[in-house]
Write a structure and sequence with these properties.
By secondary structure, the protein is of the alpha/beta class. The chain has 2 domains: 211 residues, P-loop containing nucleotide triphosphate hydrolases (Rossmann fold), CATH 3.40.50; 58 residues, Helix Hairpins. It contains 14 helices and 7 strands. Strands 3-2-4-1-5-6-7 form a 7-stranded parallel beta sheet, sandwiched between helices. The structure holds guanosine-5'-triphosphate (GTP) and magnesium ion (MG).
């Protein structure tokens, strides 16, 4: 099932024949979920085009068939109504088989080494017998332009390994929407038997907060630079981290990384823990040489042990599921409101009137909501 001829966009400039990848093409927001390009899913075009029913999807995913896993994710990502219904059914049937993984979020400024770290950690975990899925959310660019899984990516080894699965999440639309697909993709990967899910996101905007809300363990990646290490770290980001990693602790940079570690340790010590009963830790590592990777995994295992014993692990997942439902309701209500024909008709005028000071904002909001309420009753 390995797509032999598929060359991902981060393939070496002149890849030899041995370069093959497990990566399955993503879709952009608004895609109908059906691949028009047989290369993008699998070399086996006939298999790729064969339409699958719900049972095919469910069985394929549960059997760990990566081609079907890729297609199931494409189905889940689709915005077409007909796919949404089928996706819902597939997810419902897969749900009893989900939840048996550790979900890790990895965030950090561009270039801090997230992808390189995921490559190192991923290979380390596979050698330990785990199966690893990597999902990448990039709120800043579309997949076509591909920054996360573009030329900068450092996951060549991992992407060729049979026990890994790498998938960019579609961008476009709201981050909530993007993350929505990522959440469901995580569930599908779990049903396919992946034990460790690594979610990479660039540390800009709201993306860290969103990723925090869908993972068990959140890791913030930093690099030691000149001057005050704590400068430039957005307020609030440290507070959501279970661990801070100072990457690139190699060569000349080693002592600077150790110094940064002290600064972070001090700052972390004084903050409220992101996870009840777990004081956030700071460690140094070199994603490039692999130094410190084993210790980071030991820490994650310890985290799992501690939070499982206290019940915090399960409680967080239950709360995340509840909050996710609530935010879906809010998002769908908002969409219904904004696309309501009666509302659409007067929206522009209301905005203009509010801006001109002809009507108070609260009165305009009441008016619009009343219109919406009435059209729901029809
Ligand atoms: N010396 C050294 N260089 C590293 C290390 N980790 C990553 N790099 C280098 O840093 C650069 C950026 O690495 P990436 O893994 O692409 O960083 P990223 O955080 O995924 O970047 P974005 O996806 O663009 O946000 C690459 O040139 C890597 O080779 C490390 O541990 N030591
Ligand atoms: Mg990256």
């Amino acid at each position: 099932m390995t797509p032999k001829k598929q060359k991902p966009e981060w393939a070496p400039v002149n890849p030899d024949e041995s370069f093959a990848s497990n990566v399955v093409g993503g879709v952009e927001g608004g895609h109908d979920g059906m691949s028009r390009n047989s290369d993008s899913i699998n070399a086996n075009a006939a298999q790729a085009r064969k339409s699958l029913n719900t049972e095919d999807y469910v069985k394929g995913v549960l059997n760990g068939d990566r081609t079907i896993l890729g297609r199931a994710i494409t189905l889940v990502e689709s915005n077409a109504q007909i796919h949404k219904e089928q996706a819902r059914e597939v997810l419902k049937q897969l749900l009893p088989h989900t939840g048996n993984s550790i979900r890790m979020g990895i965030s950090g400024v561009p270039g801090s080494g997230k992808s390189t770290f995921i490559e190192s950690l991923g290979i380390y975990l596979i050698e330990k017998g785990f199966r690893v899925a990597v999902l990448a959310i990039d709120p800043s660019s579309s997949i076509k332009k591909g920054s996360i899984l573009g030329d900068k990516t450092r996951m060549e080894k991992l992407s060729r390994n049979q026990n890994s699965f790498i998938r960019p999440s579609p961008s476009g639309g709201t981050l909530g929407g993007v993350a929505g697909k990522t959440r469901e993709t995580m569930l599908v990967c779990e049903a396919a038997g992946y034990d460790v899910l690594l979610i990479e996101t660039v540390g800009i905007g709201q993306s860290e907060i969103t990723v925090r809300s869908m993972v068990d363990f959140f890791l913030l990646m930093q690099i030691a630079g000149a001057g005050d290490e704590l400068q430039g770290i957005k307020k609030g980001v440290m507070e959501i981290a279970d661990a801070v990693l100072i990457n690139k602790a190699d060569g000349d940079n080693k002592s600077r990384a150790e110094a940064a570690k002290q600064d972070f340790a001090m700052a972390l010590h004084y903050q409220e823990p992101a996870t009840e009963g777990w004081e956030a830790r700071v460690q140094t590592c070199s994603a490039l040489t692999g130094g410190g990777i084993a210790e980071i995994w030991d820490m994650v295992e310890e985290f799992q042990k501690v939070t499982n014993a206290s019940g915090v692990f399960g409680r967080r997942r239950r709360l995340q599921a509840r909050d996710w439902m609530n935010s879906l309701v809010q998002e769908q209500l908002k969409n219904l409101f904004l696309h309501d024909p009666e509302v659409e008709k007067v929206m522009r005028k209301m905005e203009d009137d509010v801006m001109a000071g002809n009507i108070p904002p609260a009165a305009a909001a009441d008016y619009l909501l009343k219109l919406f309420e009435n059209s729901l009753k029809k």
